[in-house]
Amino acid sequence: MSDATNTAATSTTQMPGKAEDPAVQVGRLGYVSFTTPDVDRLKEYYTKTLGFALVEESPDLVFLTTGSDHHCVVIEKADVASGRQSIGYEIAGSLSDARRRLSAIGLESELRSDIGPGTPQVLVLDEAETGTPVHLYESQTPSGVGATFDQRPTKLGHVAAYTTSTDNMRAFYQEALGFRWSDTVGDFFVFLRCNSMHHSANFIQSDNFSGMHHIAYEARDMNHLQTMLDTLARDDYSLFWGPGRHTAGHNVFTYHTDPDGHTIELYTQMDVMTNEELGYFDERPWHEQHPMYPQTWEVDLGMLNKWGPSLGEFPR
Ligand SMILES: [Fe+2]
Most-buried pick from 49, 164, 183, 196 (CB within 10 A)? Predict the structure, then answer.
């Protein structure tokens, strides 16, 4: 077992934490889409095990939500299972302004009205490095789904993906989409926020892997997380890591895999920065430093889990 107390961090900043005047200001993560050869199996996992609400479906397309948004997960039938086929972000301001400002920094985008239900107008552009379609929208139509207090997550929290260059991806997210830098682990794992939450997007640099690394759904507190985990166990889904507490972000985490093999994180207690002007995360008793500024964490596998044990070699 790694020594979870052997944590260390430096205050190295490779580039400014935010762009002075980003083209777009993303306000929050909205949705992510998956492909799967077995739509019914993945739908059952999301609705029965995770407790998502089914909003709309056809034989080959399913829209799921955790709340008032029309959807936060889209499942589409295809020959091969794949995560993060597209990613949707809600923006502040208008799509027409966004398109004009993106064009001014050399990024072409297309305004479309045929993406699907719930998002009548979507501005589509290619993500740097990966080419993944990024969908920007002003709002979603309401799902009509009411609140529950069962295992259903409170929201889609973040999506982590591989990239060939975290520097290029970070520049794209900061300068084009208005994200701010929250933390980096070593020189290969960067965390970016678009609102007070520590991260809504994170990227791992790799020459060996591509695509989605994991997707994370939020529990409102530890009791809710326990309900989620007992429901996973009821349906024979086992954790492969956790519960534990991360250092970067300080969220209590658990990881398991969905029926298609995608890594799913269920988490709670992520760091928040309620005051961007102060520039540090709200104080928590488990923080290593006070105040807790964004920083570069030294690579130490033990530091990935303050409670231990480590996962072992980090796959990248
Ligand atoms: Fe995560």
Answer: 183
Distance 264 CA to ligand 1 centre (A): 8
Stretch 250-258: mean pLDDT: 97
What separation in Å is there between the alpha carbon of 315 and the centre of ligand 1? 14
8 A C-beta contact, residue 95 and residue 111: yes
Distance 99 CA to ligand 1 centre (A): 30
Alpha carbon 115 to its chain's center:
21
Q: Tell me how far the alpha carbon of residue 52 is from its chain's centroid.
A: 17
Predicted TM-score of the model (pTM): 0.94
Average of per-residue pLDDT values in the chain: 93
The gap from C-alpha 281 to its chain's centroid, in whole angstroms, comes to 18
Q: How far is the CA of 58 from the centre of ligand 1 (A)?
A: 30
State the distance from the centre of ligand 1 to the C-alpha of 197, rounded, in angstroms: 12
Q: How far apart are CA 89 and CA 34, in angstroms?
A: 16
Domains (range + CATH), the chain: 25-137 (3.10.180.10), 150-304 (3.10.180.10)
Q: Which token pair is 288?
A: 């290593």
